[in-house]
Structures are given as C-alpha cells and as structure tokens.
Amino acid sequence: MLGKREGVDVFDMENPIREGKGTMADPYQVPSYFDHRYVGCRGEEEGEGDHKPYWMRVEIDKPGRCWECGSVFALKYLGSPEHDHH
Q1: What's the rounded Cα separation, in Å, for the pair 45 and 77?
Q2: Is residue 83 marked as binding?
Q3: Residue 51 assigned to a binding site
Q4: Which of 4, 33, 57, 60 could connect to 81 by a Cys-Cys bridge, CB 3.0–4.6 Å?
Q5: Which residue range(s) make up the domain with 24?
Q6: Do the domain assignments include residue 3?
Q7: What DSSP letter does each residue of 46-80 carry, written as one string?
C-alpha cells in the first residue's frame, strides 16, 4: 500500500516478460539471481491483460503454469549476484 500511495509499481506490472512464447516448448523466461522467483500472470493480451493476476513460484527446473490461461514460465538463472564488500 505504501508503494501505491507513493506512485511506485512495486510488483513491476508495467514491464511484462517478453522472452519466450509462454508454451511448454518455449516458456516465458523469468530472470533471477536466486533459485526461485515469484511471477504474476495477467494473461496473454497486450495492455491490461485478460484475467486478474495469478501469482506463482517459479524454480530452477520447475516451471510454473497459469491456471487461468495456461501460460508457462521458466526460471532463467543469472547466477549469484556479486557481493562487493569493502
């Protein structure tokens, strides 16, 4: 609620994932520096989407599939983030 009040899109709903086709053979690629990530699906339509967001956890070697529209999401592991401690 604080983000919304400040005008911040905390769930990054304005930048949909576009890498992949959303099928089992070519799932949407969800980038992450960790072994899992939560992703919300709003459907395949441009703009507002065609259903309310369905949130799921996507893990390495365990894709997620939207129960509403069937879109498939797979984790694109980017490796551990580098920690530069001084």
Answers
A1: 26
A2: no
A3: yes
A4: 33
A5: 19-77
A6: no
A7: STT-SS--EEEEEETTB-EE-TTT--EEEEEE--P
Instruction: Convert the pLDDT of each residue in 43-66 to its tens digit.
Output: 875 555 688 889 999 999 999 999
Contact 63, 74 (CB under 8 A): yes
- CB burial string 61-79: b at 16+ within 10 A, e below: eebbbbeebebbbbbbbee
Candidates 55, 54, 73, 76; CA nearest to 64 is 73
Count: domains in the chain? 1
Residue 85 marked as a ligand binder: no
CATH number at residue 52: 2.60.260.40
Residue 7 lies in a domain: no
pLDDT of residue 5: 73
Q: Is 86 annotated as a binding residue?
A: no
Count CA atoms within 13 Å of residue 7 on its CB side.
Answer: 0
Q: What is the mean pLDDT of the chain?
A: 81
Residues 5-17: tens digit of each pLDDT: 776 655 555 666 6
